Amino acid sequence: MSDYYSQLKQAFYEIQKALTGDYEIRPDNVYQEGNHNGQEIIGSLVDKIVLPGSRIINSEHIRDLYDRSQRGESCLLLVEHYSNFDYPVIFRFLENDPLLGKEVARSLIPIQGMKLSSEESVTSAFTHTYSTIVIYPSRSIDNVEDPDQKSEIRKISTPINHAAMKELTDRKYHGQMILVFPSGTRYRPWDPESKKGVREIFTYLKSFENILFLGINGNIMKPHQSDDMNADVKAIERDLMLLTASPVIKGKEFRKQKIAETPEGGDSKQYVVDQVMNELERIHCETELLRQKELS
How many helices (H) and strands (E) does the chain have? Predict the structure, then answer.
């Protein structure tokens, strides 16, 4: 077990002491404000763990997206997801990038599933450190087979998700960029379904003017095969982290183009979502060639 795990545990305890907010998930509490002191604690740890040369590639595209958001345009980042530490890395890299900085980092609002807010998860302390909008993921509902149980879950999930979408709509037109992981979960190599995009992304493409794809290469907190998030943190390790930003595109145009390309008889919504995942995979593969060259 690495010394970074000990440092992570120490950061966890320091952050827990600093958290004073109301983290119960209710329709009137779907937006949760971050904690700047905690962000600095985690950011300093990220600085120590990532290898020299870790950076954002094409950060000017993120700056372009941010500038559009400041003009009142709706802006969405669609991001690869490999680790529960992805967002802390993204946030810190934005803070450290000379074209971006704290102002841009703090304008981000990730959409987060309720599982990451669980008090049983070690990662919940890190989750609460960043501003977020919490939703009840459809995947969690769809996996329930008992109709009575599913009905009871919907009584809870529907008001939460309606409130979350209302909050998102307000914030996306007031200078804040929304960040979504299209897979809805971190990728686990033993579960190919974990890299499949969720159908809700089709709606996001329709409702945002500007879209940016962000690839993630490298991983400092790989998922544990037990799928226990508390076990993930024990395997924290150094790695070269490269984040690659695409140019900004128009969401509706991308959606319209991909609908037109849908094979005859195919599910156009899922096809469009699949093309989002394909674009992220393309960025990832291109950057991985560079990353492996730099590692060697």
Answer: 12, 9
Residue type at 30?
Answer: V
250: left (phi over 0), alpha (psi -120 to 50) or beta: beta
User: Other C-beta atoms within 10 Å of 150: how many?
Assistant: 14
pLDDT in tens, 66-90: 999 999 999 999 999 999 899 999 9
Domain holding 119, by residue range, is 3-295
Whether pLDDT at 44 is above 60: yes
Tokens for 195?
Answer: 């890299």
CATH code of the domain containing 98:
3.40.1130.10
Q: Reduce the DSSP state of residue 295 to 3 states and report it.
A: helix
SS3 state of residue 285: helix
How is residue 14 written in tokens?
């320091």
Q: Tokens 């409130």, residue?
A: 163
pTM comes to 0.92
Say how many domains are in the chain. 1
* Rounded-to-integer distance, Cα 276 and Cα 278, Å: 5
Cα–Cα–Cα angle for 145, 151, 154, rounded to 5 degrees = 105
What SS3 class is residue 209? coil
Local confidence band at 175 (pLDDT 50, 70, 90 cut-offs): very high
Beta strand ranges found along 102-190 (DSSP E): 108-113, 132-135, 177-180
- For residue 210 the two structure tokens come to 């500007």
Distance CA 186, CA 170 (A): 27
The one-letter amino acid at 93: F
Amino acid letter for position 106: R
